[in-house]
Design goal:
two-stranded antiparallel sheet; globular; alpha+beta; 2 strands; 102 residues; single chain
Amino acid sequence: MQGLGAKQSDVAAMRQETEEEDLVLQPECVEPFQLFHRLGTQWHRQMINTMNSARLIRTGLDYGAAAQVADALGLAFDAPMLDALQIMEAEALKVFAEEARS
């Protein structure tokens, strides 16, 4: 991240936050989470312009890309995987909306 212009202190703080947060998943959630995590760059985005500002909002995941990423990871992109992915997507969209309001 420093190579992209981040300050060393910011990188150190981010690493400390990451190390302090443990994520415990139920066994049936591991593969859907792996896929969701890998789809971090595969969000559809929409530009919203007003007279005073412009912002980019996420509108949902690209499911075509999701299927390809799942295949690359050796994961089945079936109905249970899609269900789990959509639950995580919906929750993420709520968080993104809340962040946009603040």
